[in-house]
Amino acid sequence: MMKVLILGATGHVGNRLCKYLSQHKYQVIAASRGRLKTPIHDHIILDTLNFEAMRTALTQVDAVVNCVAGDKYSIGQGAEILANAAKAAGNPMIIHLSTMSVYGGNEGNVTENTPFDPSYGWYAAAKCEAESHMQTYADAGGRVISFRPGCVHGPGSHLWVSRPAQLLKSYRLGDLGDAGDGWSNLVHVDDVVRAIKIGLEISLQPGEHKKYNLAAPDSPRWNQYLFDIASSIGATPIKRISRLQLKLDSKLWSPAIKVCQIVSRKMGLKVSFLPEPLPPSLVKLFDQHIFLNSDEFSKAHLFSYTTYTDSLNDSIQWLKSQL
Amino acid sequence: MIKNIVEIPSGTMLDVDVCIVGAGAAGIATALSLSGRGLNILLLESGLEHFNQQTQNLYQGSLTDANLHSPPDKYRHRRFGGSTAIWGGRCMPFDPIDFEQRDHIPFSGWPIVYNDLHPYFVLANRFLEAGTYEYDADKVFGAEAKPLFKGFKSDRLFTNNMERFSCPTNVGLRYHRRLQDAKDIQLILGANVTGIRLDANATTVSHLNVASLEQHTFNVKAKKIVLATGGIEVARLLLASNDVCPSGISNKHDVVGRYYQCHIAGNLGKLTIFGNPNSVRHGYEVSPEGIYCRRRLALDAATQRKAKVGNLVARLHFPKIVDPSHKIGVLSGLFLAKNFISYEYGKRLKDGQATLSTYLHHFKNILFDPIDTYLFLYRWLTKRTLAQRKFPSVILNNKNNQFTLEIHSEQIPNPDSRITLITEKDTLGMPKVNIDWRYLPEDIQSVEKTLDVFVEEFQKSGVGVFEFNKAQLEEDLTRFGAYGGHHIGTARMGNDPTTSVVDQHCKVHDLDNLYIASSAVFPTSSQANPTLTIVALSLRLADHLAQTVGAKAQAQHLTI
Ligand SMILES: Cc1cc2nc3c(=O)[nH]c(=O)nc-3n(C[C@H](O)[C@H](O)[C@H](O)COP(=O)(O)OP(=O)(O)OC[C@H]3O[C@@H](n4cnc5c(N)ncnc54)[C@H](O)[C@@H]3O)c2cc1C
What we know:
The complex is a heterodimer. Chain A is of the alpha/beta class. Chain A has a domain at 3-157 and 184-216 and 289-305: NAD(P)-binding Rossmann-like Domain (Rossmann fold), CATH 3.40.50.720. Chain A has eleven helices and eleven strands. In chain A, the strands form three sheets. In chain A, strands 3-2-1-4-5-7-10 form a seven-stranded parallel sheet. In chain A, strands 6-11 form a two-stranded parallel ribbon. In chain A, helix 3 packs parallel to helix 4. Chain A is globular. Chain B is an alpha/beta fold. Chain B folds into two domains: 2-126 and 170-261 and 421-437 and 486-548, FAD/NAD(P)-binding domain (3-Layer(bba) Sandwich); 137-167 and 267-411 and 441-478, no CATH class. In chain B, strands 1, 2, 3, 7, 8, 9, 10 and 19 form an eight-stranded mixed sheet that branches. In chain B, a hairpin with a 5-residue loop joins strand 12 (285-286) and strand 13. Chain B is globular, with a radius of gyration of 24 Å. Chains A and B meet through helix 7 of A and helix 6 of B. Bound molecules: flavin-adenine dinucleotide (FAD). Residues 21-27, 44-47, 75-76, 78-79, 82-84, 86-90, 192-193, 228-230, 233, 344, 485, 518-519, 529-531, 534 of chain B line the site of flavin-adenine dinucleotide (FAD). Flavin-adenine dinucleotide is lined by residues 21-27, 44-47, 75-76, 78-79, 82-84, 86-90, 192-193, 228-230, 233, 344, 485, 518-519, 529-531, 534 of chain B.
């Protein structure tokens, strides 16, 4: 039985991955930074920035899946520490959850060979840095698979399901016209989870680092996705939103909300009463004509994605169960 | 990729897979649909990104009867995006009956049926930002929603048929980015096609001549060529390219430029609905996708066949603006503002002689109806001027359940209604056109017979009364001449080359590589405004072209 350590086990992907692998005869050690609200089987608390702790944990497993999210340190330095600790622990296989953000502002048909663009923002920079540490690990004889998913939706996705739903309900998103013409590059969280399991089964040579984009090829443009969510939650008729409104919202109104959120948190207040901020990076993404080409993985591993309609239904069902 | 003609060295011969001439609704839809299939696509556009008077002047020409048709340089724009820069955005598909050969409509019948176009209508609707492809108000708003007239039932006259409104989307602005980003599309602005050159056997287009206003010239060779220059300019290009075939391209049987149709339209009659103004659904409804929709009156296909009439729709309208006796401040305001409104939108406001007393009465109307006038102005400002999706038209409060009907009717194809070339030339040396638009007495009779059914059905229903003045019908329907902006039939589609110019795939009969994407190919005009059907035909053409040159069948997912 293969023993797998999952870092970031309480996150959106990590959480579903733990369950899935456990059901599929993997011995899973779920690791996260903090304590859990709902207990997971075989959970440990692990600080991914602590080399010694990481090394100890890694010596006990055959593979590790890195689903850590967070600030730029936990992403960038975390990956460096992971690489070093894995080396010190006898070179377990690493599955690294990267992101399409490594391609930054690239547009058009983006394959695994498209150059990185760390200049795009702190997140892109951190994720590029993380992948470079993975490369260093491979160069030193490690085995790595980096997955670069698009926007991971499906059950449990605040970012791509409940957040847009809230913004649609308050008519701050809607029909964005040409500002919503970018591809959504959606991928169902369970497709990511299935891809990771396939990754764990690939036999790599020491020194190999495989990279795969993950996105459902039938993902629509953002306008379509936003309308589909809006209509399923009755946030209709949707409004035509101008570029000016998007700009005012993301650059003036949303930063104010953000400040209130921070202050409220400091004062120990709940922030759920505050409206959802619309970050400028999201507005930029809706307008980015990037088509994340995921043929490489589908072809190499006969992988078929959940259809857009099914993913959407799953997302909506989850969303409704939250209300 | 978007370029200006000056970036192409003078004298060059470009060699591409598909060359599309004209970047309006048809040309842009064709190009985007072809994109992503491994082809090398060239899109030539005469205009620039903004209106330019010298370019627009290339559209000038003459009229046989200035009372019957607007000048050729009005009601169309020669610029990137084409006439969608000023269109009204009204969308509706052609009905299945429009494609049928109907014995009571001479020269009717398309070589394709509605179902051939259906999948493309779905995409065209999205392309024009008119939402989901569904034109039955009962399906869009639910059968329980308030109908056009409460309690009205008829099995001949239907009120659930509706139209949808595009933003109105200027396809040049809307798809600028996609055209710019597409690596397989080269759009050249300022590039006027001035000639279609044939090989010696007159079976193939060998190349196109292209020129700028500054006499910068180059040529284009292409496996397939698509003319998407609009319903008048298609005929002009075919007729003017007469070096190998003296009568022009594909014009052996003298069909090019003939059968020119617009629509027969007018605001007429008096519809009185009994009871409370609440019993009438007047104005727009908004569909879930945020689209303004409006219900209309129309006969079903069986009744049209039985009554031997053409297709027609009617919308509820307000009284004649010019006549101040309506006492409606908003209308008087519109009347007074008519000189500030563009030619195209002001035309139907300029009705008859206005004396000083007419003006004074209109001022009085505004003074005595201030609240409605201000409310109207406020709504106009927020929902139209400042909005991206624009409130489509002036809708007044229904105070007394009295309406006129705005009629939009099919016109019978008539070979004598035609576009010809004149000797006068434009600055590029192209002969200008003359427009001789005509209607037939049967066109007026068709409207009359249809309205007779309206009269009967209202009477039967008991919800109201419709009356119209038969003696004045022709005058009412032709007061402003042909309905502007719909240029139909000048290179019609058909199986018989003696009465048509292109085949069912929009390919010119006599040549193996020249195609037309335009309302020029419509054999008949329907009740519908043309653009949705133009785009649907263009998308169908793109699939056909891709197939014939052996490109990928499917456009990259959802290119449109
Ligand atoms: C005021 C107004 C309101 C309208 N309202 C509606 C409506 O509500 N609903 C509806 O369905 N339709 C409406 N229309 C009609 C609609 O605009 C046209 O049906 C539509 O634009 C036609 O598309 P097209 O691509 O065939 O032609 P166009 O949009 O006219 O495009 C033709 C293009 O070809 C270019 N071109 C011309 N000659 C040459 C040449 N020799 N070389 C290179 N390029 C050339 C032109 O510059 C232009 O860009 C309206 C039109 C007007 C004017």
